[in-house]
From TrEMBL:
Membrane spanning stretches: 70-99, 111-133, 190-222, 317-339
Origin species: Streptomyces aureoversilis
All residue ranges annotated as the ABC transporter domain in the record: 392-634
Entry's localization field: Cell membrane
Membrane topology classification: Multi-pass membrane protein
Record-given protein name: ABC transporter ATP-binding protein
Pfam family for this entry, one: ABC_tran
Record SUPFAM superfamilies: ABC transporter transmembrane region (SSF90123), P-loop containing nucleoside triphosphate hydrolases (SSF52540)
Keyword Nucleus in record: no
Keyword tags: ATP-binding, Membrane, Nucleotide-binding, Transmembrane, Transmembrane helix
InterPro entries (UniProt xref): AAA+_ATPase, ABC1_TM_sf, ABC_transporter-like_ATP-bd, ABC_transporter-like_CS, P-loop_NTPase, Type_1_exporter
Recorded GO MF terms: ATP binding
């Protein structure tokens, strides 16, 4: 009896393309894996036991969002169940009248009241159905929105160090799939509850006709239920085993639609390779679909045969009751009608309960994610940072990333005074970006202290720390919104003042570029949308500068700001960073590999393997014989020295071709 066994999760075979492209299966760090066991353990009883608890969760959320809509929904469903019972009783009344003795006109007259009440019950059911649809349309979006908002708000407040922890990150991201589960569970629960109500009504009517008929109904329903659960479990097992395969096809074919992959897709013929692989892997998946289809057909035959046999037995029972038990023909007619309807309700209840069970797993993930996110949230409250300008002091600061085997920073001490440019230099991986994140208050040190105007960041109101900082990084975040909004988002908490956006763009030397775009400031920074534009890397970097200038805070943390800039723009950028400190209050923490730019910094800290190994002005550091900074500087300078053959002329901005 292969069909009765727990479905297996045998891995799909490796296709030729997978072998060529991935050297075997392409496996993901998958969130789905954890669902396999609960889903495969799913049985009718486990679902039935969990149903009240699931309903309670949904009802709690629905009551919080719109108690009136929930009350109407519950009331309408109860009334709908009553109408079903009423309809069955009316049908019985009609049949009793029609099967009685006497002339046809009398029989029809006697049946009329039951006929009218049945019609009224049917009309009421339709109206109640409409009311349920209307209330659902009001309640569902509210619930979905509330869940999403709670999730996004939580995600925006999680400490960055927690986000670095793979396990936490995985659990948090899994929660996303549960944000619309409550809505789907509510939807299914409406079906389940109304199905159960109608089923109960049918069972009560059958019991009133003869108690054996309820048993017959259970016998008819049981194989159907079994069949539905077996098919569902097999589908889950297959989905689980094939999820990596499905995702691998998605990952592989995604670049075909991307504009930035276009040249290699065409010139190297990569598109052909990807399309062939998609076809090859698709053929393997098609075989699995065929296998599922065949298995489902066999299960259906078994379930239908068992259910059909039970139905024959039920009708035999009715026959016997008619012949030997004295049951009136009208009652038998009502019983046939009730059995037919009840089987339909049962199918609905089984299918919708299966959905609810699956969704409840995702909902649990969302609740766990929100709880976990709250545990790792940036604390609110604390001491505000006092005074104008900021003096950031790091004392013996060490920092280790979650799960890392060694410290990224070791006992670092430095000061960023107001009105100064402080530069951080060092080889790749020496800890500059990590240090900048600690200065910004994004990470808390593993040991040591970071303080803002004497207030330790750990005890400070973190909002007040963030409120003093403007960030400018190498990879400027291109938000999917207008270019204007992309500048304004630097300080999105205050209303957008177009004049100020323009002024910031002017200072960042990007105003003309934006204003010459076909839709100017209203261009959308996302290709593929109406008014969409694609800015170059250097243009984005300038938009990033405009964003930081618009924010206009006392401490500017600038990480490799010129990577995408041409030489002229690079020189102008470093000059303008220096100008920022002219007010004696604004300071700049500058991270760069261009050592010519650090020469004018007020103080330079040289990092090596997470430690500060030298510090001072350019002049002082260059005076250290065999110094690290001097070595790096001379190495960089020598590249220019060997290639310079005369005066170098930086070409002027290109004029338009037309
Ligand atoms: N999110 C992270 N999780 C774990 N380790 C990290 C993480 N980010 C950086 N590291 C490690 O911390 C060390 C310092 O990295 P960091 O990015 O601060 O160096 P950097 O000096 O800014 O390098 P670059 O000049 O290449 O930008 C490196 O060994 C790096 O591998």
């Amino acid at each position: 009896m292969k069909l009765l066994r727990k479905p297996t999760t045998t891995q799909p075979p490796v296709s030729k393309s997978e072998q060529l492209l991935f050297s075997g299966h392409l496996r993901h760090d998958k969130a789905w894996a954890q669902y396999a066991d609960p889903l495969l353990r799913m049985s009718f009883w486990s679902m039935a036991k969990q149903f009240p608890a699931m309903l309670a969760v949904i009802a709690r959320i629905a009551r919080r969002e719109d108690p009136r809509a929930l009350a109407v929904l519950v009331g309408a469903q109860l009334a709908s169940g009553v109408m079903t019972a009423f309809l069955l009783v009316s049908i019985n009344g009609v049949l009793v009248a029609l099967f009685s003795d006497g002339p046809t006109t009398d029989k029809l007259r006697d049946a009329l009241p039951a006929l009218l009440s049945g019609g009224a019950a049917s009309s009421a059911s339709v109206l109640l159905g409409c009311l349920i649809v209307k209330v659902e349309a009001r309640l569902y979006p509210k619930i979905e929105l509330a869940c999403r908002t709670a999730y996004f708000e939580m995600m925006a407040r999680v400490e960055m160090s927690a986000m670095e922890d793979k396990d936490i990150q995985r659990k948090l991201s899994m929660g996303y799939y549960g944000t619309d589960s409550v809505r789907r569970m509510l939807d299914s629960s409406v079906w389940v509850v109304s199905g159960l109500m109608s089923l109960t009504a049918a069972a009560v009517v059958l019991a009133s006709l003869h108690v054996f008929l309820v048993g017959a109904l259970a016998l008819i329903a049981a194989p159907r239920w079994w069949g539905a659960v077996v098919v569902m479990r097999r589908a889950y097992a297959s989905r689980h085993a094939w999820i990596d395969h499905t995702r691998a096809v998605d990952v592989l074919t995604y670049p075909i639609t991307r504009a930035d992959a276009t040249p290699e897709l065409r010139v190297h013929g990569a598109g052909r390779v990807l399309a062939d692989a998609s076809q090859d892997m698709g053929a393997t998946a098609a075989k699995e679909k065929e296998r599922l289809g065949s298995a489902e057909a066999v299960t259906e035959i078994i379930a239908a045969t068992m259910s059909g046999t039970a139905r024959v037995l039920a009708y035999a029972l009715l026959w016997w009751l008619l012949v030997a038990g004295g049951m009136p023909l009208a009652a038998a007619g009502t019983a046939v009608f009730a059995i037919r309807n009840a089987t339909g309700y049962l199918n609905t209840v089984v299918n919708q309960m299966n959905h609810m069970f699956e969704e409840s797993l995702y909902l649990t993930d969302m609740n766990n994610a929100i709880k976990l996110g709250q545990e790792h949230a940036i604390p609110t409250g604390g001491s505000p940072v006092p005074g104008d300008g900021v003096r950031v002091v790091l004392e013996d600061v060490s920092f280790r990333y979650p799960g890392a085997e060694k410290d990224a920073l070791c006992e670092v001490s430095l000061t960023i005074p107001p009105g100064k440019v402080v530069a951080l230099v060092g080889e790749n991986g020496s800890g500059k970006t990590t240090l900048a994140a600690l200065v910004a208050g994004l990470y808390l040190p593993t040991s040591g202290r970071v303080s803002y105007n004497g207030v330790e960041v750990r005890d400070a109101d973190r909002e007040s720390v963030f409120g003093r900082v403007a960030l400018l990084s190498q990879n400027v975040q291109a938000w999917p919104m207008t270019v204007k909004a992309n500048v304004h988002i630097g300080d999105g908490s205050r209303p957008l003042v177009h004049r100020e956006v323009e002024a910031a763009a002017e200072r960042a030397d990007v105003r003309t570029v934006v204003e010459e775009l076909p839709h100017g400031w209203d261009s959308i920074a996302l290709k593929g949308f109406e008014r969409g534009v694609k800015l170059s890397g250097g243009q984005w970097q300038r938009v990033g500068v405009a964003r930081a200038l618009y924010r206009g805070r006392e401490l500017n943390i600038v990480d490799e700001p010129t990577a995408a800039l041409d030489p002229r723009a690079e020189i102008e950028m470093f000059e303008s960073l220096h100008e920022l400190t002219g007010d004696g209050v604004t300071s700049v923490l500058l991270i760069t590999h261009r050592l010519a730019a650090t020469a004018t910094a007020d103080v330079i800290y040289v990092l090596h393997e997470g430690r500060v190994i030298e510090s001072g002005t350019h002049g002082r550091l260059m005076a250290i014989k065999d110094g690290h900074y001097r070595g790096l500087y001379e190495l960089q300078a020598s590249q220019y020295a060997t290639t310079t053959t005369g005066t170098t002329k930086v070409p002027h901005q290109r004029e338009g071709c037309a």
